[in-house]
């Protein structure tokens, strides 16, 4: 984030000018005292007029007058009100998307022979992760379109939920609850994500953690709301109710998502000057691959825990509670990890989170055979694996060298990796669930065909630690 900078006339130049005057026929020595005082005041006024509110004001076209001072960074009403609105928006968008496991368990009873049901949730989440990158590039060069994009996103998201209510096939749900929801969610989610880099600098990790904690809060509320509505009213009424409620709530939230940097009349639609040299160097790709591996495995538990609970002959409520507790654990986990990301190096946190996440899967899910074990695993996985995205803001600090446009683009590229992992994990999970080679294994590994899925999830968590290898190479 650019900082306030003051451009003042050179003192030596002013002294030289005064010296020249003293040797001229019209030197200041023959001027009245009141005239000399006026010149001094004029010089002071000229110095104040050189004050610039941002060091990238030329590109942004921001007025440099003191009367147009920008809101403070890292605090103040503007920053915190933006963060509250962004967190609420995150809660709604991602809370529903992360509750798909509840819908999957219900859809299995409606479309028992469909093989595409597992990909609906991953298509919705994967679309938002992958589309964030091109959306960020477009809105960086067309900043005036950010707020209109959110309103268009509201239309898409509302249409997806209302359309899913009337979809009468699994394929229709893929298009509505999957594709349309992903497009609408992206357009709603992208501008607040971009604005974070305007409002926060020193506290960016904490801000990212608070905003992302909305995902966990939504993941607590929405599974409980969804299963209650599904059991009492069925699919159509549930999706209609959620769709209408979302349209109303988002309409109230969007006006509070505001930029910090005002747009000048001279704002153009040309692409900003971004240094893409980071793509040529290993540190970026090590971090990017780590996010990819994490994305290939992180969505398995949230998708399959209700089905796993059913396989254990537990109440469907247990699976819903497991997802709710996993998402709840993300709230303090992401806030605390975001805080640590501002204080510690990214490498230590990557290694710690990857090992802890892997152990929670191998030892927790692998041993879960009752409701206590399943909920215990959910909490551990939520704290460690569910909080991983809070590290992404620290990744941008590793790679960025004072380019005002680069942080948001880097952030989007990391989410692209996570999105690719999410989309691929859908068909991978279907293939893994068809493997029964561990049917006689102990603990959770022997529950129906979940054994190979558990191994894949744990391995993906461990492999996400490859991102720590960026320290091996020089960050250019």
From TrEMBL:
Family: Belongs to the major facilitator superfamily. Monocarboxylate porter (TC 2.A.1.13) family.
GO CC terms: membrane
UniProt keyword Magnesium, yes or no: no
Composition bias type Polar residues, residue spans: 1-21
Main location: membrane
Region described as Disordered: 1-43
Protein name: Major facilitator superfamily (MFS) profile domain-containing protein
Coiled coil: none
Cell compartments where the protein resides: Membrane
Keyword Membrane included in the entry's annotation: yes
Pfam family, one: MFS_1
Domain called Major facilitator superfamily (MFS) profile: residue spans: 283-476
Protein keywords: Membrane, Transmembrane, Transmembrane helix
Amino acid composition bias (Low complexity), ranges on this chain: 25-35
GO MF terms, alphabetically ordered: transmembrane transporter activity
Species per Swiss-Prot/TrEMBL record: Kwoniella pini CBS 10737
Origin superkingdom: Eukaryota
Membrane topology: Multi-pass membrane protein
């Amino acid at each position: 984030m650019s900082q306030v900078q003051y451009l003042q006339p050179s003192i030596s130049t002013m002294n030289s000018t005064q010296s020249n005057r003293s040797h001229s026929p019209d030197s200041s020595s023959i001027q009245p005292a009141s005239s000399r005082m006026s010149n001094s005041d004029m010089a002071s006024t000229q110095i104040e007029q050189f004050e610039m509110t941002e060091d990238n004001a030329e590109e942004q076209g921001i007025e440099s007058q003191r009367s147009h001072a920008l809101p403070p960074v890292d605090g103040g009403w503007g920053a915190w009100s933006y963060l509250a609105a962004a967190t609420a928006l995150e809660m709604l968008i991602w809370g529903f998307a992360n509750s798909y496991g509840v819908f999957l368990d219900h859809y299995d009873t409606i479309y028992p022979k469909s093989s595409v049901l597992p990909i609906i949730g991953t298509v919705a989440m994967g679309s938002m992760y992958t589309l964030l990158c091109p959306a960020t590039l477009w809105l960086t060069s067309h900043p005036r379109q950010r707020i209109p994009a959110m309103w268009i996103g509201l239309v898409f998201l509302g249409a997806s939920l209302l359309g899913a209510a009337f979809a009468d096939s699994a394929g229709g749900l893929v298009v509505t609850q999957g594709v349309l929801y992903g497009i609408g969610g992206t357009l709603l989610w992208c501008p607040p994500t971009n604005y974070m880099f305007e409002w926060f600098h020193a506290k960016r990790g904490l801000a990212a953690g608070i905003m992302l904690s909305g995902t966990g809060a939504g993941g607590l509320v929405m599974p409980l709301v969804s299963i209650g509505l599904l059991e009492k009213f069925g699919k159509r009424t549930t999706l209609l109710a959620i769709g209408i409620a979302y349209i109303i709530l988002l309409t109230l939230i969007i006006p509070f998502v505001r930029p910090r940097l005002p747009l000048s009349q001279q704002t153009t639609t040309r692409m900003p000057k971004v240094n893409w040299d980071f793509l040529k160097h290993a540190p970026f790709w090590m971090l990017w691959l780590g996010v990819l591996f994490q994305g290939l495995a992180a969505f398995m538990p949230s998708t399959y825990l209700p089905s796993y609970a059913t396989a254990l002959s537990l109440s469907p409520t247990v699976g819903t509670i497991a997802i709710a507790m996993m998402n709840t654990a993300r709230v303090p986990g992401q806030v605390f990890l975001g805080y640590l990301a501002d204080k510690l190096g990214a490498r230590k946190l990557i290694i710690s989170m990857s090992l802890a996440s892997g152990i929670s899967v191998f030892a927790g899910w692998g041993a879960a055979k009752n409701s206590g074990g399943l909920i215990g695993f959910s909490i551990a996985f939520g704290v460690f694996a569910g909080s991983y995205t809070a590290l992404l803001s620290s990744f941008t600090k590793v790679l960025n060298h004072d380019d005002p446009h680069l942080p948001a683009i880097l952030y989007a590229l990391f989410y692209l990796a996570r999105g690719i992992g999410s989309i691929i994990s859908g068909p991978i999970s279907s293939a893994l669930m068809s493997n029964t080679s561990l049917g006689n294994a102990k603990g959770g590994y022997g529950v129906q065909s979940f054994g190979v899925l558990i191994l894949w999830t744990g391995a993906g968590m461990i492999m996400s630690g490859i991102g720590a290898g960026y320290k091996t190479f020089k960050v250019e």
